[in-house]
Amino acid sequence: MTLDSPEAQADCLGKTHWLGKVYLVGAGPGDPGLLTLKGKTLLECADVILYDALVSPEILAMINPQAERIHAGKRRGRHSLLQTEITQLLINKAQSHPVVVRLKGGDPFVFGRGGEEMEDLIQAGISVEIVPGITAGIAAPAYAGIPVTHRNYSSSVTFVTGHESVDKYHPQVNWQAIATASETLVIYMGVHNLPHILAELQAAGKDPDTPIALVRWGTRPDQQELIGTLATILAQMAAAEFEAPAVAVIGNVVHLHSLLATSRPLPIPRAVE
User: Is 52 a catalytic residue?
Assistant: First the structure.
């Protein structure tokens, strides 16, 4: 009995029968040790995997070798597939395969368009299940020694995207309101628009001396950090040639980086087979 047979997959997933189903799986932020056990099981059992650009090679190596792999990644200015094409592929594959995985970096429901994909699949009559993943907005700061909340520094945190779709219902984040909404701001996909974002925050009264951390390739062995203030970080980025992808953390919790980063977690290496 082969791994891609219905009998083997039924045993692998603890099920005896099913129609085609799509699993929206969060791959986590990069460190393969942060992938959930359920996500790993699905990668090993899937017939088809549609995966994003930021999924680490170590996680892709866990995929059933007999599964069909489809790169559906989107990076700024470079789209392998349009969103409508991705959704239609998921529908088509679920109509002919028992286990279809949509593998997304981080968590599917945190700036990952997982909610949109799930809506479309349900409307098309496709069975779908969400498998959450650890989002980069928590994990990347943690690996940099920055807790997004702390009893002495921050009792609130706001997660916001720095890159918005031009066709969304309200194509403008209200940075004026967000500037004072909470003590910690975590900005996803904001490197390209950071000059505009920082100008908006300071215009709303955010102190230019407020600390900011940029964490690139969070939780991976090549993770990089840049620590500064709202007033200095752009010059530091230019000098360091610091580029996306990165998460920005703004607030006094960044002060803890110098102390806590000395105990940074190390990615767990995969065993050599």
Answer: yes
